[in-house]
Prior knowledge:
elongated, 3 helices, mainly alpha, 107 residues, single chain, 81% helix
Amino acid sequence: MSTLVFRGDYQAAFRQELLLIVLLMPLAFFVGDGLNQILLLMVISWLVVIVEILNSAIEAIVDRIGSEHHELSGRAKDMGSAAVFIALMLNAIVWGTLTGRNLLAWW
């Protein structure tokens, strides 16, 4: 991966999500009850990073085309950001549900 791709203020989110992955991957082994749950927690976490990379690609393409404001450019960036938000919320729902369920079963 080129370092040029991940420079700039808007890539702070990518770095934060990678830090989150570093924290969540080992935690998945403690939260997950069985291989299926562990894999689900890992896959859903990596989905956030994948969607963020695609969002960054959209932003780079739009910025490459031109810096002037265009309605379609704004919509493309907004939809990419919305996809990242949905992936983050899905991640939180899955982690919260499995963590709560497994904590209740353990208690």
